[in-house]
């Protein structure tokens, strides 16, 4: 039978002012119930600054289960777990018991950091256990890029290839680098008319005018011993 929640005027006044996860234990219900009530009243969640951890709170890490400590401190379980791992504190174990290494089958299937977050241990524990069992570190599988896309990478500028493939330029650049394909370079010779303009304006202005990079204009000018433009 679903528990009946009595919403007092004080509780309703707190909706949106403090995190749902903090208000839930005060009322004696779960977070979903608080969120549902808040949304039913059209109350938006108010952005809030996360309170800093005090020395007293840090001393409590690992002394009880993360879920229990979260309720005591008025923080989320995820926040308590993340802070405990960051501080290198082992998870709480009942007296007379020891942590069970029940994650051996996961070693090497993801990074040590990811597995540490998943099982609630410090990264060093995962790393040492993996080394002890002789399991190699996780290596991400190579990126599978369709052949019709791969054959276009590096054949033109990333911007032009992106437009052709209907992708963003950063996406094309990332794919090209992952496949070890060099960027497309076009060696554009300097015409006599362009050379005559060197030093007649700032390198940046001339680069924009000629459709070249500022660096190429600078090198072309210095190579020919032409002084920089003085306004």
Question: Could you explain the architecture of this structure?
Answer:
The model has no long low-confidence stretch (mean pLDDT 82). The longest helix is centred in the first third of the chain and has 10 residues. Helix 2 packs across helix 3, helix 10 crosses helix 11 and helix 13 crosses helix 14. The protein has 14 helices and no strands. 48% of the residues lie in helices and 0% in strands. By secondary structure, it is an all-alpha fold. Among the domains are: 42 residues, no CATH class; 32 residues; 32 residues.
Question: Would you report the number of β strands?
Answer: 0
> Which descriptor suits the 3D outline?
elongated
Roughly what is the average pLDDT, rounded to an integer?
A: 82
Number of helices: 14
**Quick one: biggest sheet?**
none
How far apart are the first and last residues' alpha carbons, in Å? 83 Å
Poorly predicted runs of 5 or more residues: none
What class would the helix/strand composition place it in? mainly alpha
Rg (C-alpha, Å): 30 Å
Content of β-strand: under 5%
Reading the helices and strands in chain order gives HHHHHHHHHHHHHH
Measured as a percent range, the helix fraction is 40-55%
């Amino acid at each position: 039978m679903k528990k009946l929640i009595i919403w007092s005027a004080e509780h309703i006044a707190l909706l949106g002012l403090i995190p749902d996860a903090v208000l839930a234990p005060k009322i004696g219900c779960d977070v979903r119930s608080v969120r549902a009530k808040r949304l039913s009243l059209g109350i938006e969640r108010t952005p809030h600054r996360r309170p800093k951890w005090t020395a007293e709170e840090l001393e409590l890490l690992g002394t009880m289960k993360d879920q229990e400590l979260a309720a005591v401190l008025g923080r989320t379980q995820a926040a308590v777990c993340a802070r405990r791992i960051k501080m290198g504190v082992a998870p709480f174990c009942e007296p007379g018991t020891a942590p069970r290494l029940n994650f051996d089958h996961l070693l090497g299937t993801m990074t040590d950091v990811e597995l540490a977050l998943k099982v609630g241990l410090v990264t060093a524990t995962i790393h040492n256990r993996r080394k002890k069992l002789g399991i190699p570190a996780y290596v991400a599988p190579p990126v599978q890029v369709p052949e019709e896309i791969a054959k276009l990478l590096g054949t033109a500028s990333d911007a032009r290839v992106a437009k052709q493939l209907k992708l963003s330029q950063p996406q094309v650049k990332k794919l090209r680098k992952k496949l070890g394909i060099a960027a497309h370079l076009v060696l554009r010779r300097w015409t006599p008319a362009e050379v005559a303009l060197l030093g007649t304006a700032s390198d940046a202005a001339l680069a924009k005018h000629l459709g070249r990079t500022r660096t190429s204009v600078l090198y072309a000018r210095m190579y020919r011993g032409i002084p920089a433009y003085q306004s």
